[in-house]
Amino acid sequence: MRSVVDFAPEDVILDRAAILGSQGIPEEAELTENFERIYGEAIELFKELTEPAGIICGISISGFEEVFRGEGLNEPSNPVEDIYRKSGYLSLFAVTLGAVLSEKVTELFDSGDYASGYMLDSVSSYAADKLSDLAARNLQLELTAKEPAESQWRVLSYSPGYCGWNMSGQKKLFEVLRPQEIGITLNESYLMSPIKSVSGVLIAGSGKIHEFVSSYHFCDTCRTKSCIERMRNL
Amino acid sequence: MELLEQISFNLQNGLDDVVAALTKDAIEKRIPPGEILSDGLIAGMSIVGEKFKNHDIFLPDVLLAARAMNGAMEMLKPLLIKEGIPIRGKVVIGSVKDDLHDIGKNLVAILIKGAGFEVIDLGNDVPAEKFISAAKEENAHVIGMSALLTTTMPVMKKVVDLAKDEGLYGKIRIIVGGAPVSKEYALEIGADAYSYDGANAVETVESFFPVNN
User: What is the Cα–Cα distance from B119 to B73, expressed in whole angstroms?
Assistant: First the structure.
């Protein structure tokens, strides 16, 4: 079933330590007054301008097989394929923080206020990931409520461009999910607009299905290595 | 504190209005523009760069300083040209065709500019031909390209190949960067260098110009 999900701006919890961490700043770092001012202003701007929205669409394993195959450019061996085949439930998803935030970031840079532009962009990137986590959490709660006996549901999101799922997979995903309804479009390079959007598949199953050893050849060049923390938090 | 030291000090603190006023004052006091640049602005930015490298300050602080530097440079540039003082070097920069991510590229451009280089920012979604034509028109020393998508990275190779076709290869240095780009990829396509972040991009560009050009 395909449905639009309403999020409220306050649904996106902004964790200061995590935002600063994403900028490479350790928790114990002493920050300048300028930095604190810019950070505070960015948080206020974010709360004022964010327009979070999402769309999800449940899909069968065979249906997803076709979406995942996409343009046939995935890595021959990848963790996503192993994980989705063991899943109990799958849902395509896309979430966005809306266009206004990205426009504001551009405006700040264009006006020469680089520091504020950078900070708002950084806060927004963090928030976009959190929104995707929220979509996964909501599905986990929904599945657990439906099947209380099966309380071991663990839902994680996987996106084209990561873990061997080629970026071109966006094309098929967009054909089925149609996130244009919430304002997300795709360009020829499979880049989403608004930029602060995340799309992919929510894979539900026991925590165990999400575990894998990150020793695929593409893991060497992966910058995020976020799979390690995701698996740790299962 | 001497005027140029004040410029350096206030630039380090990102006080763009103060730096602009002090630079104006220095110009009016007929301090040679080359001296204002080297002993005031670049001296300040060098300390900012050091503090950043040592994690004493972080990127937003550097960007505030860069803004102050750029504001002062707007005043100094016509005087430097008039006195025939050469710029440190000219860099043409952009995000490659079909890539609409430009924050990383913007940061690199700001930091390179903040280090005293002239930057021609072509924006995002820049076709390979445009990098080459702009580099030729501007007599640029460096082309900097950014890609955030694996699907747009091949444009970088196209630029290198075009540079070879146009006889620019080896004359203009080519730097590539962006999340999916690596040192190995830079080597594979024949780029001169790979930069993993803005500060590293500045160091790389500076390494092409060991002495003020």
Answer: 12
